[in-house]
Amino acid sequence: MRWFIEEGAMTDVGRKRELNEDNYLVAPDYGLYLVADGMGGHSAGEIASEMAVFSISEFIEKTSQDREITWPFQREERYSDDANRLIVATKLANQHVWNRGQSQAKYHGMGTTIVAAFVSGDRVYISHVGDSRVYRIRDRQIEQLTEDHSLLADHIRMHKLTEEEAANFPFKNVITRALGVDEEVEVDIQEHPLQPDDVYLLCSDGLSGLVKDQVILQIVLENLDDLDEACRRLIAAANANGGPDNITVVIFRTRYLPEAEALRLQKAREAMKHAYPRTPTNQAFHLKRAAAARVAEQTEPALHDVQQKVEQKLTQARSALAQKQYKEAVSLLKQVALLEPEHEEGQRLLAEAEHQLAAQNARRHETDPALRARRVVELLEAGKGHLSEKAFAKAEECFLEVQRLDPTNEEAQALLARTLASLQEAAEEDEATGGEERAAEAFIEREAATALRDRKAQVEALDPLVRPAEEAAQEILSLDPSFEEAEILEELEEIEQAPRPSQRSAPDLEAEERAFYEAEMAAGRQREKAWEEHPPEGTAPPAEARESAEAPIGETGDEALEAAENPTLQTPLPSETPQEERPTIQVLSPFAEVQEEAPAFDDILSLDVKEKLAQVKEHFRIGLKCMEEEEYERAIHHWKIVRTLDAEEQTRYHRNAKVLIKIATMKLRERTQPLLDQAKRHYQKGELYKAWMILKRVLDEYPDHKEARRYFNLTQENLIKLDKVGE
User: Fold this and answer.
1) Which distant-in-sequence residues (6+ apart) come within 8 Å of 221 by Cβ?
2) Is the distance from CB of 675 to CB of 295 less than 8 angstroms?
3) Alpha-carbon distance 415 to 396, whole Å?
4) For residue 244, what is the DSSP state?
5) Which of 481, 502, 523 is the last residue of a domain?
6) pTM of the model
7) Same domain, 543 and 476
8) CA 342, 346, 350 angle in degrees (round to 5)?
9) Residue that is last in its domain, among 227, 258, 289
10) pLDDT digits (tens, 9 = 90+) for 263-313
11) CB of 680 closer than 8 Å to CB of 691
12) Which of 329, 395, 668, 723 would be a feasible disulfide site paired with 387, CB 3.0-4.6 Å?
């Protein structure tokens, strides 16, 4: 028998906040689960919670690998080694946040709560500072294990407040202890033995302050087999109560299983990581802030254009309403809703125009026999459709309107009687089984559909360098057919059709390399020709450059980088030569225009081996420099040249360039993801101009981003349609 931990986690910004300052970590590999709730202006709360999560996880991971590592704080003899590890990790996080808070004036006063659960062996250790909480659910009962470090909790513990006074206490949000507020911090620690089927829930006060303990218990018990769904339902409950704060929930369940069963589930979880990697939230907070600044600058002109269009459409709609041209007014106001969905006057005028248009159509139907007869047929068809879908209330409205227009219509009378009988049966069924259950089922269906769309988007957004998601899903299904995530993944038939690199054939790759090489060689020849016609002063001619290429070339930082990326590398690299002694190398320009026919791919064989090696080294060095300057697209470009030139010999530069291309591609995705997420939010709100501007920025930086390209095309198509409607 052995212990196996199942977990779920989710965070949400809430209904009132613009920034999510919460952070969490789920690390089952070394049994660590964290929730942090940051505080402070200038995004300092987000930074504080991020630093706390990273610092604690880093210390626990290091001490898991090396028990002899030096600890920065004295151990407390009354606690076990594992309890001391968690205490020291929390104190170390406090020190890091405190130091950052003292480093700059804008970070003064930054801090964060922290609650941590550390599973080691058959015990769980819990540390906490602040008002984030840990609950334990055992034998269908819920228990709060931590005590809030807040002014309200202190008053309640001293019996100074009644329940009513506590509900109206004016200083509910004042906490008495947090990481980073003082140079030293007192950490509360506790230790509990694991028991089978215990459930531990860590949360920020965005949940515990709004959802009662018994509601939390009920939601978790109803979703024990899907802890991610439990987290989603808890967050929905908090948002339903107003959602004034960020909400974060981490849940894990302890199971004691036979060795083979636990091992099978462990392998299934490892396979799932390839398809759905879980990372802490707000991991790239500095990138998000920089992206927000760039987006604000880029979208300001577009935003001004949108506002002008909105005012223009509103003016035209008011004029149409005054002239009783209700159909035209509805069309104009729908365009306003597309441009700015939250425009209050636009919403009010649209409702008024639709009401007037419906009344106008009704008057026409009553006075024109042909229109009235056509309207009766339309209403009958609509009512039958509603009846088949069991939307009895809508069906009743349709058949009553038919009776008003045509009192002698026998078909409408029969259908109305059938509808009323169905309504009565539904009411009796609701009374017997509870209408809330039906509503709950509908809610679950909607949530499931949303989850399926989220899964689909997540799979489509997977980096193509990661193992294909379908392959991971098949492996999971072979290990555990009951895995819900794998079943959902298997149903996604509209996954991007373009072949991933791992699926492309060797001839395809060779053809691509040939085309790439030919284009680059043409650019290089063109540049050399231009140089021969107008040589710059103080430079060596091409022939001398090729001769000097035989001299060794230093690669700053190459040795360390290659050793890190390729541990088996044994051949030392030549040392760096002084800048003034570096030989002149004629490099194929990645940006030169192709103006003549490219040479054949096989011309590469005619290059001198030493000259080719010099080109390889120089492009490799330029790629490293671009990487250091975060010019990832240029770095990829140079390393592709390295792989093309070195395709025959396949030296260590060829192998390392392949690894570095992957790293640079991932860096590009990380840097552009915050912008892409913001563009998707604008797109979903109907703010097409904003989305278009941000997506253009993403594609300027990362032209091969497939998801951004897809959204860009959709946004552009909708904008074109919108302009045509406006015309």
Assistant:
1) 137, 140
2) yes
3) 9
4) -
5) 502
6) 0.43
7) no
8) 120
9) 258
10) 777 776 665 554 333 444 433 333 433 444 444 455 455 556 667 788 888
11) yes
12) 395
